[in-house]
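Researcher: We're teaching a course module on how sequence relates to structure. For the next exercise, students receive a sequence and then see the predicted structure as C-alpha cells, so they can try to spot secondary structure elements on their own. Here is the exercise chain.
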Amino acid sequence: MDLLKYVRVSILILPMVLGQVRKPQSFMVGEQYCQRLTKDPYFEPEMVIGKPWRIYYTWNIKMEDKCLDMIFKNATASIINRVWNDMNEYVETQPYWDAATLLVTMGRAKHEMLLFADQGAAGRFTGVPNVVRDGNISPARSAVPLLKFHMKLLHAGKYLLMVDCQIGVITLSARTRAMPYRAEIGGVVHNLSLGDGYHACISDRNKDEQAAENK
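Model: And here is the predicted structure for the students to work with:
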C-alpha cells in the first residue's frame, strides 16, 4: 500500500483492519461533500472534547460489526511540541504548528492526528497524522501529506459528521454512553441525503431498543 493511501485511510479515519473502502472516490468528489457542509456549518470544539465518540454509520467504507471510537482533546503546548518532534521533518507542507486546536485519538491502537482549524466555515480542518507514533511505517522526509476534512455537529451536538475532503469517506458518530436507537440513526442518515451507506458497530445497540425487539 502506498504511503498516501495508508495515511488517508489507515491513519486518518478508519484503520484498514476495521474496514475496506468500497467506493473509492476522487478528490473532487470528496471536496464536493465538504462543500455541502459549508452551506450550514455548525461546530464548537468544546462540544466534541471529553467522552468518546463511536462511529455508527459510514459512507464509502464498510465496517459492519467493527467498532471505532474517537477521543478529542485540546491541543496543549506539550501535545503540539510532542507531535512536532515526531512529524516536523516528515510532513509534506509545514503547518503553523502553534495554531493547532485539537488532538484526536482513534481506536485501540490510539492512532492520533493534530488538528488545525482552516479559514472559512466552522468545522473545516487540516490534520497532521502522527505516523511516527503509529510505528507501522517509516515515512520519508517531507513525504506525509496534510489531510483535509470537515466536521459538523448535528441535533444540538448529539451526532458528529466527519467527511474526508479528499477520498470522500464519511462517518456519523455519537457518544458511546448514550447509544441512540438505530431507527433514529436511520432518520438522521435519511435527512442528510448523502446516498446509500452502511451501519457500523452493528452489535452495539440501545438496550431499550433491544428489549422492544425481543417482546
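Model: If you want an answer key for the exercise: The longest strand covers residues 147-154. Residues 1-25 have pLDDT under 50 and may be disordered.
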